[in-house]
Amino acid sequence: MFGYVRPALDRLGQEQKDAYQSAYCGLCHALGRRHGWLARMTLQYDFTFLAIVLAAGEGEDRLCCLRCPIHPCRRPRPCLTCSRLDAAADQSVILTWHKLSDDVADHGLFSGLPYRFLRLLFRRAYRRAAGAQPAFDAQVREGLARLGGSLGPSAQLKLSGIMERFRLRFDQQGRKHDSFLVLEKMWGVIFDAVDEDRCYAVSDEQRVLNYVDRNVKEGIGLDEAAEYANMSSSYFSKFFKRITGVNFITYMMDGKISAAKDMLTDTDMPVINIAYELSYSETNYFGKAFKKKVGLTPTEYREQHQHARGAAEEGGASR
């Protein structure tokens, strides 16, 4: 539900780090003051970011030095204090309560006992927070009800595990293309889980296109796509051309060339590796197909893009 925001502290200046730390400590104190010591355990980077955004609307920041209850021997630190920070604390407790309720629903009687116990401990804090933020609590309830109504229990459980695994993998990526590959894989797995559960309302045409687009790099053939659509190959070929305006082979080729352009411009991956990633068994065939479509060989396309980007960067630096 939350827990996906991470502060890029290595990219912040000292003044920005101090401002972030004051918001983090201020939110911790707001949670403890409003909802008790246990509520401090809900402290999230997400709501620290929310607190900073909300506090910006109050004009001048107000700081006071408070001692950390977790590290009482350390000297007091500057903490941000404002009413918007209290709102972020309330919303953090509300979301934690609903997350625990979701965990109770996802687990059996015995495996769900820890979540039931924690939810019992948070009941009073939740009621206080929901009383202070009734509109937000109603929005969360409505959103969860819509999501739970559209996805079956098995798909919800599977997607919960998927998101946590990919969050950990995404945090480990350093390059743009590596991050993109993780996201691409994540969406593929999510679509497969939702598709298997048959719980999203799209037309047959869109469902087939989603499947083909997700498998362009794997080089699926006409027969495989027709089997997925539960059609004969000849009928599927006519069906596909009717909904896309091009035949299946041309559509797949265009998709592969588009993916190749991204890899050539966003990575330093050798051309032979790009060809392999796009399911070409021979680099020469990939090069010929690319040149026929683009007018340049893959190497020429990469060099042209690098020169254009270098010129743009030089022009920006000279301004």
What report would you give on this structure?
The protein is 71% helix and 3% strand. The chain is mainly α. The chain has 3 domains: 9-150, no CATH class; 160-250, no CATH class; 261-318, Arc Repressor Mutant, subunit A, CATH 1.10.10. Helix 1 (14-35) crosses helix 2 (45-56), helix 2 (45-56) packs antiparallel against helix 3 and helix 6 (153-171) packs antiparallel against helix 7 (176-197). It is flat. It starts with 13 loop residues before the first helix and ends with a helix.
Q: Which key terms come to mind for this protein?
A:
14 helices; 319 residues; 2 strands; 3 domains; Arc Repressor Mutant, subunit A; mainly alpha; two-stranded antiparallel sheet; 71% helix
SSE diagram, text form:
Elements: H1 14-35, H2 45-56, E1 63-66, E2 77-80, H3 83-106, H4 113-132, H5 134-150, H6 153-171, H7 176-197, H8 204-214, H9 222-228, H10 233-244, H11 248-266, H12 271-277, H13 283-294, H14 298-318
Antiparallel strand pairs: 1-2
Helix pairs in contact: 1-2, 1-3, 2-3, 3-4, 3-5, 4-5, 6-7, 9-10, 11-13, 11-14
As a percent range, the share of strand residues is under 5%
The spatial strand order of the largest sheet comes to: 1-2
Number of H- or I-type helical stretches = 14
Rg computed from alpha carbons, rounded to a whole number of angstroms? 26 Å
Q: Structural class, from helix and strand content?
A: mainly alpha
Overall pLDDT level? 76
